Every structure is written in C-alpha cells, then in structure tokens.
Amino acid sequence: DSGVTQTPKHLITATGQRVTLRCSPRSGDLSVYWYQQSLDQGLQFLIQYYNGEERAKGNILERFSAQQFPDLHSELNLSSLELGDSALYFCASSLLGTSETEQFFGPGTRLTVL
Amino acid sequence: GDSVTQMEGPVTLSEEAFLTINCTYTATGYPSLFWYVQYPGEGLQLLLKATKADDKGSNKGFEATYRKETTSFHLEKGSVQVSDSAVYFCALRPNDYKLSFGAGTTVTVRA
Fold this sequence. Notes:
The complex is a heterodimer of chains A (114) and B (111). With 114 residues, chain A is mainly beta. Chain A has no helices and eleven strands. In chain A, strand 7 (64-68) and strand 8 form a beta hairpin. Chain A is globular and about 40 Å long. The termini of chain B are far apart. Chain B is globular, with a radius of gyration of 13 Å. The chains are: A mainly beta (114), B mainly beta (111). At the A-B interface, strand 4, strand 5 and strand 10 of A face strand 6 and strand 11 of B.
C-alpha cells in the first residue's frame, strides 16, 4: 500500500458526461501528479500540482482540468467525455515537487465511457 | 523530446529462468532512470532507480545499470518466480518533474 488513495475505483459513464476523480496523497506529501494509462497511448503524464498550485502540464486535453485543494487532495475533472477517454487514471504523490523526490502511485481509477 | 523505448512483450518464462527486459532512452542532459512494476489490479510501484551514469539500481533480485554510452537501462533478474509476473515499465525523468514511461512489458512466469 503506497498510502495514496483514489476514488472511485471504477467509473462507468456515457459519452458527453462529466466525471470527477479524487486523489488523496500520502500524509505529508505536497505534490500530486495525474497520469493516464490507455491501450493506445500507454502511460502519459497529465498534470502536476505542488502545494495547491499548478507546477507542470503534460498531454492534458482542454476538456480536462484539475485542482489541488488546501488539504492537498486533488481532483481531476473530465468533461464532454468521449469513448477514447476510457482509461486507467493514476494519481501519484511526492514529498516535494522536485525531480529528486520519489513518486508514489495510487491504485488508479478505471474509467469506462460507453 | 525525451522518450523511452522498451522491449515489446509479452514475455513468458519458466520459473528460475533468466529475465532481461531491454530499455533505451532519448533525452537531453542527464535524466534519472527508473523501473516500475505493476502487479495485476494494482498501481505502479517503484522497483529500482539510478540517477547517474554507471549507477546500478537493485531491488528484490532485479538489477539495472545506467549506461550513458549506450543510452540503456536494461532490467535483469537471474531467477524469476511466479510472483514476478507483472507489467514492467521503464521510465526516465529529466530535470523537470514528469516521468516519461515506456510502453510496458508484460511478463508471465509459469511454474
């Protein structure tokens, strides 16, 4: 158990809908990262937050947004969902937001868009 | 840009066989290199890492050496067990914060 929790574990929804994925980092970690794992794209970095502020952006679509709250949990919002958004979404956390600190991964949220 | 290319799977082995998963990378500067493992139904776990050239990362019988001259970070284990069945990801992290992952290699070890 990495100490990173993600809810829900599974999510099934329809095209055009909006969903929110939640992540609680390990106790004491200030930085949160979101990754998407899909069959065709592999594992891709989406976005990083550090202590409530956006730190780095990867291949995140404009339909997707995220935030990190004062209690350091993070939410990833996916809107106008398409079939291709079906994937496993991982959250990771690290103590700091620097390249020296290890990222610990949560178990993921599996999103299925029908 | 930075990228990782790893050996395509799936790889099927018998218990106690030798495992090698090749990984090469393209990056500017001096990235840190990682191997992550994903067991069925679980998230990724860091298996080992190396932060500079000629470093050897090791954990649970797995080893990988950071070879700058060949831009490689091949994963090896001398005697695999059924419990090593998983998906293995090679990754690099340059001077910024994000990890770039390879496509993953599925390893199945048969008793």
